UniProtKB/TrEMBL annotation:
Residues 1-19 form the signal peptide. The keyword Signal applies. The keyword Signal applies. It comes from the Eukaryota. The lineage of its organism: Eukaryota, Fungi, Fungi incertae sedis, Mucoromycota, Glomeromycotina. Keywords: Signal. PANTHER family: PROTEIN, PUTATIVE (AFU_ORTHOLOGUE AFUA_6G10930)-RELATED. This is Chitin-binding type-4 domain-containing protein. It comes from Diversispora epigaea.
Amino acid sequence: MKFLSSLFLLASLIYSVSAHTTMSYPLPRSHIFNPNTPFKDYTCLTSPLNGGVGCLPKPFPCGGYPVDTKFSTILIAGQKFNVTFYNPAAPNPDSSTDQARHNGGLCEFALSYNGGITWTKIATYHKTCPDVLFGWTVKIPENAPTCDTLGQCLFSWSWINAAGNLEFYQNCADVKIIGKSITPLPEIDITKANLPEFEDAFFPEGDPSNTGNAKGSGPLAKDITENLKPFSTKPEPEYAPETTKCVKDKKSPYYIVYNNGKKTTLKCKGTKVCHQRHNNIVCKK
Ligand SMILES: *[C@@H]1O[C@H](CO)[C@@H](O)[C@H](O)[C@H]1NC(C)=O
Ligand SMILES: [Cu+2]
């Protein structure tokens, strides 16, 4: 599915349920404010990739939205900026606005240099994200290389909600990156859960100090500090020397997981079989 058909018959319903937010800086693909998108999604950009009332499920990554006709945002290696969110159901929000925050959850910000095949996570916010009433500080790694091929260079916001249905939200922005280094960034995958393709189901820690709808307490100071640390000196993600591996036994594919050096053999559920996705296993038919 390339373009997302909105079921206009349900438009009046949609308005009442899609009180979720979208990323608004950097402007994502198909955002109503994006001057460079070939398709503005007025109703379902706010919905999770799982779909919702009046909104069809959308594919990972990025919901399958079309690439912008030119870059909407230029980012520079080392640049610090605040990611912002926008709620189309409440363009002028205050602290009583329903943002359908589902008690917050886990927000991750990531870059891709290959159109979303692989990711480098560059910032994480726990518990209180997203919230349109705050900025969410991110730093482009100082050692990020240049990326200027339209369709390949992405800035992603993904959100796994803390309460409600198990859902995965993602908006992606086409961003030109001006860098210095020529060394690719290490792959640091985003957390993929709550989609049929990714069998992990999980509710991250949330922000129970509010109803999940009203204003929250904003980004955690320790997350901001962590996100602004020099990227180049952050430890590389630890991959076990023997990584998770899908074994394509013709009769019955299985996969091997190493947990603290202990080897476990597992199979995908039902008729699904394992596929290798970098260091992860994806179970698919
Ligand atoms: C970025 O967001 C933080 C946290 O909400 C806020 O304290 C700060 O003033 C914002 N910075 C800018 C430049 O808007
Ligand atoms: Cu919701």
